[in-house]
From TrEMBL:
Domain Hydantoinase/oxoprolinase N-terminal positions: 8-215
Pfam families named among the record's database cross-references: Hydant_A_C (PF19278), Hydant_A_N (PF05378), Hydantoinase_A (PF01968), Hydantoinase_B (PF02538)
Protein origin, superkingdom: Eukaryota
A GO MF term: 5-oxoprolinase (ATP-hydrolyzing) activity
Any GO CC annotation of this UniProt entry: cytosol
Domain Acetophenone carboxylase-like C-terminal residue range list: 550-713
InterPro entries: ACX-like_C, Hydant_A_N, Hydantoinase_A, Hydantoinase_B, Oxoprolinase-like
The Hydantoinase B/oxoprolinase domain, residue ranges: 736-1258
Similarity comment: Belongs to the oxoprolinase family.
Name recorded for this polypeptide: 5-oxoprolinase
Species name: Bicyclus anynana
Region (Disordered): 1250-1271
Hydantoinase A/oxoprolinase domain location: 235-532
Length: 1291
């Protein structure tokens, strides 16, 4: 029995619109249309509905020529309209209304740059076109505040969380009305209102919202009602996205429904939200719509594979044209509550879908001996080479060349008139050309030549390995084993790769639903309607607050229930899920948890949230903090109106019968062409078996069964593949370009997974939440093979540390030893960065076969000041505990007694203390040992798979490959330098603010591609702490070389092989053993980069400083670094308010700072005009103002307060920085570049950071259109794996 009327489930994707329809007679229809085809229809989903109704009933249109909605029972739709508007910046014209002093807050964001090695910093554009600053402000009340309030008109009140709030300036309603009127006159109809602390104090936002509505704005997004979570920047982004996208969505929905009788008023129309739940058409809004399309696919595979076809948890693998979406399902949808899409951070529940840049359209390139697939994509226009529009070679072309795609089964929609079939000849021609290029390279390096099939197969292998990395990050990194999962494959391109991806991950079962080509649409048909309610909270989770928590959960539950009942759900169809957003006191890591079942002392009426939180914390992070309070940040209810999907009847079984064969074709696998059987899915019956190699064709996708694997058709007509071992090519120690790319991914993956273990098992905020650490793998000679993440100041520096230990310890190292070092003479950067190294042994050798190491920033290791970063230290002893080569673990025994003694030793120095946080030091060092163990385990697995000789050979091959890339670049630079100046010698000098010169002379060899970097003439060691250990200069050089190469190269010891570095002993760059170095790490490192780029004439100077600010009392400390301007270069403007070069630290959100510390921020905005003018202008610095609420010690450690950041080629220099202290009595004092002073309640610190230099003479103004001329689409990653890596690269 079918439904009463037609039920449509539609996924309107970027390229195709997919439709799944249930007809009243029980029939199922599926359809795929181009999403945009203006010649034939104006709206693809409506056209699909019209076609199906016409074909099934013969009268799709009513008397007015509109689609007859009386035939339709329901429409469920997912759409990429919001995502595309965000990617292409095509939303509504909108304005931002924000507190005075913060007009650039969302532009500056968290001040980190998206791509750490891009000198032309590309920040996503902001969404608003105008800003209105409102002179109103509230701050959290604080018992220990010492500001004299007697003369101030501050009002005390309470926020919705019960928090005390001080209103220090009320809204001037007339001024707001006047400013908003101006916006209306400019034609702006949409605004986002974002005020500090509105998550708890809403009154000001509500007042402004009311005025805006009276003035006729048709979209007013108040940040507290869009998302009431703490943190002003992400809440501001979310409100802006809402104001930017909601009008756009409403317009789309209106256009869609206009083509139906009565505008669909009487039909049940639901839209899919980012969280995998449906919502009525009129409630669908911008901030919840970002993942509307892909969410259907996750629901689709979750509900069709998990515990239906397999008891295993499932990894979703959705491979499309430009990208692949990866997710995981183990009985519950996995949500994240904050994620970034196209540069906009959205705070809203959304499925954890990880998008990686590897799809059918990923471009294939051969660079310096390395096979590269993606991240650039050919997009839909021009598309792959075989699409007949002059596109580049892509993964799709590789599949076509190898016979895995059959043109005769593809629709004829290609070519300029979109009426031709796939062009195999164009693909063959392009591969022949690329293969010639690869072979001429291999001939020079003595390698074996390759056929074009081997080349295509190589690219497929590299693309598959690239897709495995995020799956490993999603599983193993969180404590799950990838091998215990099934792979659910859907999307147009996934079927060609699923077997190989599964085999690489050790997965044995691949599941392909019969509607895999349109699974997102099918998922819409299965999904539930979801109604969420959430509000902030500030309670401790303990029996005293249970009544209040229960009451708040009940109130929210009633709201959700009423809304669902209004949509026609009965009591029995409604499920209410309670959640609390919990975290340990003193940490930032909050988890959204549902309660554990059962009765206990920790249980509220809604269940035991405490036990659920502790179990999940232990699973994700490896330990719990039993002595700390658990705080409730938010209370949330997810109300679900359950759908009853139609039961599908199983087709007749074909057990024991032979599947009907269409034909046999030749398909290329490792080792050569094989006869491969072709079957059509529609002709296959349940329980029939198919042995690989075979291809199952379906109108919607192509499924490849590899040799050694087999497929079975399930009872309901889906495909289950059992993955066997395919014939992989045996790998030898000889260099193979394809294996080189694969090993490069594997070695990087090992460093990444070590980092995940370190983060999960560490305890301090610095490592667990700020992610200030890196992990690395070293060859038998101590040379770096891979490290992750790429924190510039750690690049290459750990190698010096490992090689120092090898020199000092010689052959005395034994299995079970672990070493600890941080001393500048032992390759250290500054003392808080502790490096833990583990040598690895093998029965074949007495010496270590390789090393693993992890370096983490410890918040305190003793010394003059809390935080161990004293601005006024003059000797190393004042900066904390120093280790040159300590056996942290001796033959398996942890040397705790000696370690504690050494960590307390700085207390013997006058004015200093031992470590102020011993328990965190011990826990974090144990976590570093655990991370190293994980690295050893992973490399040992590689050795089992390939053999020790092969793994060590590829460690060396990868280093040689990096060397090759740098040599190629140095040859180019040498040639252009000689052409420009007639000489191969480059020179530059830069002065620190204290007058010390950093002198560099670079001698290039154009034939060998080598360079001598000679710092002779650099000033001597200085009094104070600006001395930089040798390792810092090497890190700065690797960073500069990688920026100049301009594309991904493995960053390892090979990068520095072509470079000979001469640093005079006793200079500021190689100071004596006892010299203070803490400023060298954070300031001098930036100035070394300045001098290198000046010598190479790459671009103008960036701010050349990290603007370090430390403040505190004996019981607490706060440290921040502040952004400035980046330098302009040939063809690009500098960027304002961003961190540059050797740092990329995120700044703590205004609301968090004001809640936790006795300070408040009165201004954080760009310093207009501080960037140098030029043909291309330098980026602006920022102004940041802090008011102190208690007496604090204020310390600043900054550069570029005397000498301006240089311009280049006639560009003007950037403004110098300026540090001011405005006393409460109005007196203003210039603090200079380095100072430590006492500041009193009501004093204001004003930091003006330097701007970047300009490039080219200001009179040669450029053509504004010249900056962007990129033909191919840049791919935007997203998901929790990407968030984690971005966070790692922002320390």
């Amino acid at each position: 029995m079918g439904p009463k009327g037609f039920q449509f489930a539609i996924d309107r994707g970027g390229t195709f619109t997919d439709v799944f329809a249930s007809c009243p007679n029980g029939k199922v229809r599926v359809m795929k249309l181009l999403s945009v085809d203006p010649q034939n229809y104006d709206d693809a989903p409506r056209e699909a509905i019209r076609r199906i109704l016409q074909e099934e009933t013969g009268n799709a249109l009513d008397k007015d020529g509109k689609v007859n909605s009386s035939l339709i029972e329901s429409i469920r739709m997912g759409t990429t309209v919001a995502t595309n508007a965000l990617l292409e910046r095509k939303g509504a014209k909108m304005a931002l209304v924000i507190n005075k002093g913060f007009k650039d807050l969302l532009y500056i964001g968290n001040q980190a740059r998206p791509n750490i090695f891009q000198l032309n910093i590309k920040r996503p554009d902001v969404l608003y076109t105008e800003v209105v600053e409102v002179d109103c402000r509230v701050i959290p009340g604080m018992d220990q505040c010492q500001i004299d309030k007697s003369k101030l008109k501050w009002k005390e009140t309470y926020g919705t969380t019960g928090q005390k709030i001080l209103v220090i300036q009320d809204v001037d309603e007339e001024a707001v009305r006047k400013d908003l009127k101006v916006l209306r006159e400019k034609g702006i109809n949409s605004i986002a209102v974002v005020l500090a602390h509105s998550y708890t104090y809403r009154e000001h936002e509500l007042k402004i919202g009311k005025i805006a509505e009276e003035l006729g704005f048709n979209q007013v997004s108040l940040s507290h009602s869009v998302t009431s979570m703490v943190r002003m920047v992400p809440r501001g982004f979310t409100a802006s996205a809402d104001a930017y996208l909601t009008p756009h969505i409403k317009e789309y929905v209106k256009g869609f429904s206009n083509g139906f009788t009565d505008d669909l008023k009487n039909s049940n129309v639901l839209f899919m939200q980012s969280d995998g739940g449906l919502t009525p058409m009129n409630l669908f809004n911008g901030s919840r719509a970002i993942l509307s399309g892909p969410a259907g696919g996750v629901v689709g595979y979750a509900l069709t594979s998990y515990q239906k076809e397999t008891g295993l948890p499932v990894i979703g693998f959705d491979m499309g044209g430009t990208s692949t979406d990866v997710s995981r399902y183990a009985g519950a949808l996995e949500h994240v509550h904050e994620a970034t899409t196209a540069g906009v951070t959205i705070q809203a529940p959304q499925l954890d879908i990880n998008t990686v840049a590897a799809g059918g359209g990923s471009m294939l390139m051969f660079r310096s001996g390395l096979f590269v697939a993606g991240p650039e994509s050919a997009g839909a226009q021009p598309g792959p080479a075989c699409y007949r529009k002059g596109g580049p070679l892509t993964v799709t072309d590789a599949n076509l060349l190898l016979g895995r795609l059959l043109p005769e089964y593809f629709p004829k929609i290609f070519g300029p008139n979109e009426n031709e079939e796939l062009d195999l000849n164009a693909t063959v021609a392009a591969f022949t050309k690329l293969t010639d290029q690869i072979n001429s390279f291999l001939k020079q390096s003595g390698g074996k030549s390759m056929t074009k099939e081997e080349v295509a197969m190589g690219f497929i292998n590299v693309a598959n390995e690239a897709m495995c990395r995020p799956i490993r990050a999603l599983t193993t990194a969180r404590g799950y084993d990838a091998r215990t999962h099934a792979l659910a494959c859907f999307g147009g391109a996934g079927g060609q790769h699923a077997c190989q991806v599964a085999e690489r991950l050790g997965i044995r079962t691949v599941y392909v639903h019969k509607y895999a080509g349109i699974l997102s649409a099918y998922g819409m048909a299965l999904a539930d309607v979801v109604q969420e309610a959430q509000e902030p909270c500030a309670l401790v989770y303990c029996p005293n607050s249970f009544d209040e928590l229960d009451m708040r959960l009940d109130t929210l539950a009633a709201v959700c229930k009423d809304k669902l009942k209004a949509q026609g759900f009965s009591e029995s169809q409604i499920v209410l899920e309670p959640y609390l957003h919990l975290r340990y006191a003193g940490t930032d890591c909050a988890l959204m948890v549902s309660p554990a079942l059962g009765d206990s002392a920790h249980a509220t009426k809604h269940g035991d949230f405490y036990t659920a939180f502790v179990n999940r914390y232990k699973n994700e992070f490896g330990f719990t903090l039993s002595d700390r309070d658990v705080l409730v940040d938010d209370v949330r209810i997810r109300g679900i109106g359950t759908s009853v999907p139609a039961e599908h009847t199983a087709p007749v079984s074909g057990k024991g019968t032979k599947p009907p064969l269409e034909k046999i074709v030749k398909v290329y696998f490792e080792g050569g062409y094989q006869d491969t059987a072709i079957y059509l899915l529609e002709k296959l019956r349940p329980e029939q078996e198919i042995l690989g190699p075979a291809i199952i064709m379906d109108s919607l996708s192509t499924i490849l069964i590899e040799p050694g694997s087999s497929a079975e058709i399930t009872k309901l007509g889906d495909i289950r593949i059992s993955v066997g071992a395919s014939q992989s090519k045996s790998v030898t120690a000889e260099l193979d370009s394809v294996q080189l790319s694969i090993f490069s991914h594997r070695f990087m993956s090992i460093a990444e997974q070590m980092g995940r273990v370190l983060q999960r098992t560490s305890i301090s905020v610095n490592i667990k939440e700020r992610l200030d650490f890196s992990c690395a793998l070293f060859g038998p000679d101590g040379g770096l093979v891979s490290n992750a993440p790429h924190i510039p100041v750690h690049l290459g520096a750990m190698q010096e540390t490992v090689q120092y230990q090898m020199k000092v310890r010689g052959d005395s190292l034994k299995p079970g030893d672990v070493l600890l070092a941080n001393h500048p003479k032992a390759g250290g950067s500054h003392l808080p960065d502790l490096t833990v190294m583990t040598p690895v042994f093998h029965e074949s050798s007495k010496r270590p076969i390789f090393f693993v190491a992890s370096r983490g920033h410890h918040a305190d290791i003793g010394g003059l000041t809390p935080g161990s970063m004293p601005p006024h230290s003059t000797s190393l002893a004042q900066e904390g505990a120093a280790f040159k080569s300590m056996l942290l673990v001796d033959g398996g025994l942890f040397n705790e007694e000696l370690l504690v003694k050494e960590l307390m030793k700085p207390g013997e120095v006058s004015g200093c203390s031992g470590t102020r946080n011993l328990s965190d030091n011990l826990s974090d060092l144990k976590a570093q040992v655990a991370a190293n163990q994980r690295g050893i385990q992973l490399v040992t697995e590689l050795i089992h798979q390939y053999g020790l000789d092969v793994v060590q050979a590829y460690m060396a091959h990868i280093q040689q490959n990096a060397e090759l890339a740098v040599r190629d670049m140095l040859k180019e630079i040498a040639k252009s330098t000689i052409a420009k100046t007639g000489s191969a010698v480059l020179k530059a000098t830069e002065y620190l603010d204290n007058g010390t010169a950093i002198v560099l002379k670079i001698t290039l060899d154009k034939d060998k591609g080598s360079a001598i970097c000679d710092f002779t003439g650099t000033g001597v060691e200085v009094w104070g702490n600006l001395n930089a250990p040798r390792a810092i200069t090497l890190s700065a050089l690797i960073y500069c070389l990688r920026c100049m190469v301009g594309h991904d190269v493995p960053l390892n010891q090979g990068c520095l092989n072509p470079v000979k570095v001469i640093i005079p002993v006793g200079s500021i760059l190689d100071p004596s053993e006892d010299a203070a170095v803490v400023g060298g790490n954070v300031l001098t490192s930036q100035r070394i980069v300045d001098v290198v780029f000046k010598a190479f004439q790459v671009c103008a100077a960036s701010q050349g400083c990290m603007n370090n600010l430390t403040l505190g009392e004996t019981s607490w400390g706060y440290y921040e670094t502040v952004a400035g301007g980046s330098g302009a270069g040939p063809g690009w403007h500098g960027t304002g308010g961003v961190h540059t070069h050797m740092t990329n630290t995120r700044i703590t959100d205004v609301e968090i700072v004001e809640n936790r510390y006795p300070i408040f921020v009165t201004r954080f905005s760009l310093r207009q005009g501080s960037g140098g003018r030029g043909q291309w202008n330098g980026g602006d610095g920022v102004t940041r103002e802090l008011v102190f609420r208690r007496t604090v010690q204020l310390s600043v450690l900054t550069e570029r307060r005397s000498f301006q950041p240089y311009g280049m080629n006639g560009g003007e220099p950037g403004e110098r920085g300026l540090n001011l202290l405005e006393r409460v009595d109005g007196r203003v004092i210039n603090l200079g570049g380095k100072a430590s002073v006492e500041a009193y309640p009501g004093d204001k610190y004003i930091m003006n950071s330097p701007g970047g230099g300009g490039y080219g003479s200001p009179s040669d103004l450029h053509d504004p259109n010249k900056q962007t001329n990129k033909q191919y689409s840049e791919f935007l990653e997203r998901g929790s794996v990407y968030e984690y890596r971005s966070a790692q690269e922002s320390v």
